[in-house]
Amino acid sequence: MSAAKYANLPDIDTAPDLYETPDVFPGASQGSESEDEEGRATRSKVPEVTLRDGLDGSHVMKSAEATERFRRAEQSSRKKGTSLYAYTPSTSESAAPPPFSQRLHSLKHELAALEAEAQSSLTSSPQDEEPNSAELVRELADMRTRLERVGTSGDARKKTPNGATSKASHTESLRAQTVSVDDTGHERKVKDVQAVSDIDKRLGQLEKILGSSALTLDEASPLSPPLLPMYTRLNTLLSLLTQPRHLDSISRRLKLLLPDLDRLSNAQTTPSKQGARRQSGPQSLDAVDSSQKAASSSQPSSMQETILPILNRLAPHLNQIPHILARLRTLSALHASASAFDETLSSLEADQQSVRRSLTDLSQAVAGIEGSMESNNKVVQGNFDSLDMRITALTSQMADGSNLNVPRQFSQQSIAS
Known about the structure:
The protein has 417 residues and is mainly alpha-helical. The protein is 74% helix and 0% strand.
């Protein structure tokens, strides 16, 4: 169809197209006010041939001009090529912000979710995180009151009295919960302090029972000796004493020790008996032998006599002897530092004495120099006075001018002086 339509160019085919509608003349619908009436009015002025073909030939260009335009358009399209263009959305099509009521409603929903999470965290959080949860609940309650004030400020955001009272009651309940949480936290702190004080009391009682509180403190550490090593030592001793085989071994050792102690007591009593026999009368041969034995054992007995009272005095203090030794060890370092300090002080005193001697020597030298300077000053002053007197006498004689032998006399006087 297109080949038949454009076969006889530059003439335009006047045959009706397959998809063209037939022309409607003005007489068909005169009362309508649509845009087709204007088209019909303009087409009524066109000649009958153009009306029949459905084309307006008054503005048709020539075929040469049309081909030239088509050729130029094709060349320009080939040079430019195809390009994509993205339409920017206009500002009028951008989404408008949500209304105030909708934003307030969403904020209230988020606040309700946060309150639910805070309540769940209050029930499931440990003790150390409860104050933070309580502060969070308090802030949420304050935020809810602020949102209620904002909601009741406008006519569009007015709420019913029942809803307002329910929200107010909810905020009051939240505040009561925060106060209860604060009270529980304070009570728990008080209970913790009471538990610590109870532990301290129990430790004091345990120290009194074990005897560590009566011991002197070590200067190396300001605290009392630790209870755990002492308790473990006592526990090991009790475990040893409660076992039967250990008790049997201790009993055997005591049985072996008792005869030695008996012998020692007998050795202590025999010298006193022999001295009494010497005072009563003459000695027999047996007495002489016993005296010889006593003389041979006098040296160890004297040592025992000196040691036994010391042991008797040290026996009640056996538990404190290790601590005393530890204290002495710590004091040994202190005594060493004190001796070093004493040595430094003695050296400083010697230096001070030498400095004092040098100062006395210097003061004596300065005093001698001052005395010599004073004497020299007196001599110089006397010389100056005498010279002044002579100058005044000379000037007076020169002023008089009566005596011509003044220079000779002055020279003789100066030589005589």
